[in-house]
Amino acid sequence: MHKIQQENLKRTPTDSLTVKKRIQHADPRKLGKGWKGALSNTEDSAHAEEGTHTQNTGSTQLREEDSSPEKGWTELDLALSLLLK
Amino acid sequence: MAEWRKKRRTMRHYDRAAKVYDAQYSEEQEAKINAALKSLKLRDNAIVLDAGCGTGLLFPHIARAVRLVAGLDLSSSIMGEAKKRAKQLPNTALLRADADQMPFQDHTFDTVFAITLLQNTPNPHLTLEEIKRVSKSRAVIVATGLKKQFTLRSFTDLLHQARLNIKALETDERLRGYVAVCTKSSKKTLKERPQTH
Questions:
Q1: Touching check for B87 and chain A: CB below 8 Å?
Q2: C-alpha pair distances (Å), A51 with each of A17, A71, A78, B71, B99
Q3: Residue B46 and residue B59: Cα distance in Å, rounded?
Q4: Chain centroid, CA B61 distance in Å
């Protein structure tokens, strides 16, 4: 379990998606004690305070997604961003 | 330091004036805008910068005729007013930044408006250089100069020193400012060419 969490922290947001899926699809019985914590860490972080950066991979992932053109940006935001240095 | 002192003073002035700005100055501003637009043809795919956009009085005049309008100002309160106008226009984006150090890439804009800007910046030469940096090589630059602050001579000298070609100059006495429509000069003038003998 610890191994997965540590791995999770080291990974980039893109990689963390794979890790998150792995945790979700893993058999809890095989993960042993504390698997709930690992899952809730990833998922509860979806409600983490906006703008705060924690070591939690889930919240980093959320921040990345929120600032991506697909999730939060309007076409206008995107157009303006292309003009910026 | 002195430059930032002036910028802060100007910023505070516009922060305080934001709510009453339109009531007080819209007539004067609209006159300048109309004078500028008379001598200007906007292309429908143009990317336009309104440097020192204030409450965004220019936006409704141009937004529907161009591809994108970027409004930039340093005063947050005045940007709040501009936001109300920009909301109704799908292609108008706002950015709070210093006109002397704009966060845009080089050669970005087809047209740059600097209406009621040069009299508010500590070093208008520097402001014009920055405007030139962000504008494309064939860009049109519209600049105004408050008559209280500039004589016609000092205003045109300022534009010439920035190597801008004045294509049209409105000096109508009903206007409180001069309105110049310029292009970027690509060639050096005779005076500036190095002497060969």
A1: no
A2: 20, 16, 20, 26, 28
A3: 14
A4: 15
Domains of chain B with bracketed CATH: 2-192 (3.40.50.150)
Asked if A29 reaches chain B (Cβ–Cβ under 8 Å), the answer is no
Q: Quick check: B168 and B180 in contact, CB under 8 A? A: yes
Contact (Cβ atoms closer than 8 angstroms) between residue B161 and residue B123:
no
pLDDT, one tens digit per residue, over B167-182 is 999 999 999 999 999 9
Contact B103 A76 (CB under 8 A): no
ipTM topping 0.95: no
The pLDDT tens digits for B68-112 are 999 999 999 999 999 999 999 999 999 999 999 999 999 999 999
Question: B46-71 pLDDT, tens per residue?
Answer: 999 999 999 999 999 999 999 999 99
Q: How many CA atoms lie within 13 A of A84 on its CB side?
A: 13
Chain A residue numbers with beta carbons less than 8 Å from the beta carbon of B105 are: 83-85
Both tokens of residue A25? 């699809």
Spans of all domains in chain A:
2-83
Against a cut of 0.80, is the pTM above it? no
Asked if A84 reaches chain B (Cβ–Cβ under 8 Å), the answer is yes
